[in-house]
Amino acid sequence: MFFFDTSVICDYLTLPERLVKNPDVQERVKKTHQLFEIFKQRDQKDQSKKLWFYVSAITITELRKFQRSEDVLSDIVNLVNTGNVVFVDFSKEVAEYLHKNFTSYLSDNSLREFTANLEKLTDMGAMSARKWIDDDVKIAGTAKMVRKLDALLTGDYKTFLPVAKQMGLPVYYTKDIPVDMFGELKTEW
């Protein structure tokens, strides 16, 4: 079971050729494309072991800001070419979980320090950074509620990756996914 952060979906919707001037981002986007191809091939190869993909309702609202299509839900389902996509609501249970548990990961001073450090990493103003961090915490909190989660995938190392790690989630930065000697993603999972 894989949970997608908004950044992974945005990366898949981006053509790597358009990122020639930014090789680091281009590499991450290429790996994301390879990963989605592996997902599609695996589902086609073994129907009995279909993969399940999870996306937060918060991601849907974030994508609406960037995407012209009115039918974001269908677009997301089409990304993995399977009906095994579950959209997870930001529910009362998720909100209560975050209220009770996120601050337990950090003391009040540590929470302020953690937020300040994330704000320094972003290129936005403090208000935008806080909103971005708030959405990342909500998405990670939603992922935390998914049982038997194999991996949470993100292309955002500045804010989402540290938040998800702080919450103890099995999060992977897509650019860091290992490749074999031919530059192809390793698929021993």
- Could you name the CATH topology? Rossmann fold
Structural class, by secondary structure, is alpha/beta
Shape by Cα distribution? globular
Q: Portion of residues in helices?
A: 40-55%
Number of DSSP helical runs: 8
User: So what's the CATH class?
Assistant: Alpha Beta
CATH architecture annotation: 3-Layer(aba) Sandwich
Question: Reading side by side through the largest sheet, how are the strands ordered?
Answer: 3-2-1-4-5
Main sheet record = 5 strands, parallel
Q: Give the N-terminus to C-terminus distance in angstroms.
A: 12 Å
Poorly predicted parts: none
> CATH homologous superfamily, by name?
5'-nuclease
The helix/strand series, from N terminus to C terminus, equals EHHEHHEHHHEHE
> What integer value in Å does the Rg equal?
17 Å
Explain this structure.
The protein is α/β, with parallel strands linked by helices and 189 residues long. It has eight helices and five strands. The chain has a five-stranded parallel sheet, with helices on both faces. Helix 8 links the parallel strand 4 and strand 5 (171-173). The longest helix is centred in the first third of the chain and has 23 residues, at 23-45. The chain starts with a strand and ends in a 16-residue tail after the last strand.
